[in-house]
Design brief:
With 181 residues, this protein is mainly alpha-helical. The chain is 75% helix and 10% strand. The protein has one domain.
């Protein structure tokens, strides 16, 4: 019988994939719970929903769209942001791995090879950081226009006018009420 002293290394891809799946399940579960619970509140306070949808989109792309029942856009923004974040994490790990090898390399060819790979993965990581920032900005622009359209519809639906006319010559008071829905 052999006993192994120390840590048993598990594959990194398996751990990160499991972590990503758990994160996605928890994110969408809480997102849908918030969405369904806010449907009732949204009917009562439409103004509060506008603020919370914007805040949700500020926190994570796609969350505000999901709260506004724009499921396709919300899923696209959320999955693309998660993809970029995963790639950032992955390329950062690879760059750090080759940087550690670069620091301990003794051969000139190895030093050049590891330095080149470190720079390659750093550049890829930076491109995905830029992509994630771009997705976040597009998400904010999208939720801004959603809120703007909703505000226009809300104002048009709730337009009530009351006009009162008083005619001295005929001694009449005229009430005019206009409802626009």
């Amino acid at each position: 019988m052999k006993f192994v002293i120390g840590r048993v290394k598990k594959p990194v891809k398996c751990q990160s994939t499991v972590f990503l799946i758990i994160f996605l399940i928890l994110f969408f579960q809480t997102s849908l719970n918030f969405t369904f619970s806010q449907e009732k509140e949204a009917k009562k306070n439409n103004e509060d929903k506008k603020i919370t949808s914007l805040k949700k989109s500020l926190l994570f792309p796609g969350w505000g769209q999901l709260a506004e029942k724009r499921y396709f856009e919300g899923i696209i923004f959320a999955t693309s942001e998660l993809f970029c974040l995963y790639q950032i994490y992955s390329f950062n790990r690879k760059a750090n791995y080759y940087y550690k090898k670069y620091k301990i390399a003794t051969n000139v060819q190895d030093v050049l090879l590891y330095r080149e790979r470190t720079e390659k993965y750093d550049k890829l990581r930076n491109k995905y950081i830029l992509g994630a920032a771009g997705i976040w900005v597009l998400n904010l622009v999208d939720i801004y226009y959603i809120m703007k359209k909703r505000q226009k519809r809300f104002q048009k639906k709730r337009n009530i006018k009351l006009n009162i006319f008083f005619n001295n010559g005929e001694k009449k008071i005229i009430f005019n009420i206009n409802f626009n829905f």
